[in-house]
Amino acid sequence: MANENWIDVGAATELSATPLRRVKAGDRELALSFKDGRFGVVSNTCNHVGGPLGDGTLAGDYINCPWHNWKFHRCTGLGEPGFEEDAVPAFAVKVENGRVLVDMASATKRTRKPHAPHPLSRKIERAAGPVRVAGIATSPMDEANPRFSGSDHLLRHALASCAAHGAESRMIRLSELKFRACEGYYSKAAHACTWPCSITQMDESDQMDRVYEALVHWADAIIVATPIRWGAASSLYFKMAERLNCVQNAITIRDQVLIRNKVAGFIIVGGQDNIQGVAGQMLGFFAELGFIFPQFPYVAHSRGWSSEDMERNVELVRASAELAEGAAMLARRCIDLAARLIAQDEAPTTIERGGRKAHTLEMEKDKRMAAEA
Ligand code: FES
């Protein structure tokens, strides 16, 4: 038949030994499956953000993409029922003389069902108005039986002072939100960790979108408050931080700086110590996201190694006018810096990548390409 272009991709005995794998045909990567005595071949590249379908799993006759679980028929390339318009190229396949042959000229068209963009993916444009401060309380709490939290308490003081400086404020308490832990999409591949977060795009019930909305779109300044737990920030702080990998990763994979002209300050309250260690970790992390810090970017309190009487610590924080004032002054430093940054609007939208996280230097790229040639 005219216009056929059969390419040998391997021995049928070997290729029928696994239900799904990647194969190469010329310079194209294909996802080759074998089920019920029949081979199927589709493009290896998922319609979503390019996941490798050949590394996925078979669910019936559908290939489950290993990155975010979109499904495509292993022989026709059509999306799962209801999403047939979302199709990846499919190829004719036959076995001759024990060899599997794929007709590269038979590729069907890749088609995409329009997917409404996630609201978080909209262009980041600061809405006019006064400086906006988002407070993020990370103290874990039984919401039904709330207790006094020193870090929440000081954060409330900080936020309550914002109006006096002409700023709006909003508080987000992580313990009120239901959100999933980061499931390591970055560990599958850098491009699998998307902005907006893969989980946020897949799971409407996940409430981390409120944090993203505040950090990336709404706020000009954030104040993150944490207790100290065994010398580190709280478990909820780390649960949030892990989910913020997608914000940093947008720089890594697309050179897209989501956080511009934004300020971060911190409130750290511990029963014992390691305030400077906790502050160092938080400063390092938020610096990687693109936040800028005011002079003296955190206020903190602890009673030291020899003080196990936590009830006195609670009393002290609750009653201290000095700590409350310190929290309010932190808010003021954040607001003042945010106002200056907004007025100057000098933060870059992209950055020079040399020496930045996950950037491959040209010399390394040249070496790799030479080795592959
Ligand atoms: S589901 Fe395939 S790349 Fe996202």
Describe the model.
About 30% of the residues lie in helices and about 20% in strands. The chain has about 375 residues and is an alpha/beta fold. The structure holds FE2/S2 (inorganic) cluster (FES). FE2/S2 (inorganic) cluster binds near residues 46, 48, 50, 68 and 69.
List the main descriptive attributes of the protein structure presented here:
373 residues, single chain, 11 helices, 14 strands, binds FE2/S2 (inorganic) cluster, 6-stranded antiparallel β-sheet, 5-stranded parallel β-sheet, alpha/beta
Topology:
Blueprint: E1 6-11, H1 12-15, E2 20-25, E3 28-35, E4 38-43, E5 57-59, E6 62-64, E7 71-73, E8 90-96, E9 99-103, E10 132-137, H2 150-160, E11 168-173, H3 185-188, H4 198-202, H5 209-218, E12 221-227, H6 235-243, H7 245-254, E13 263-269, H8 275-289, E14 298-301, H9 310-319, H10 321-344, H11 362-372
Helix pairs in contact: 2-10
Bound molecules: FE2/S2 (inorganic) cluster (FES).
Note the run of SSEs as H and E. Answer: EHEEEEEEEEEHEHHHEHHEHEHHH
Beta-strand residue percentage: 15-25%
Distance between the termini: 35 Å
Largest sheet: 6 strands, antiparallel
Total helices: the number is 11
Which percent range fits the helix content? 25-40%
- Strand element count: 14
Hetero groups: FE2/S2 (inorganic) cluster
Q: What form results from the Cα inertia axes? A: elongated
Which residues form runs of ≥5 with pLDDT under 50?
none
Mean pLDDT: 93
Structural class: alpha/beta
**Strand arrangement across the biggest beta sheet:** 1-9-8-4-3-2
Spatial extent as radius of gyration: 26 Å
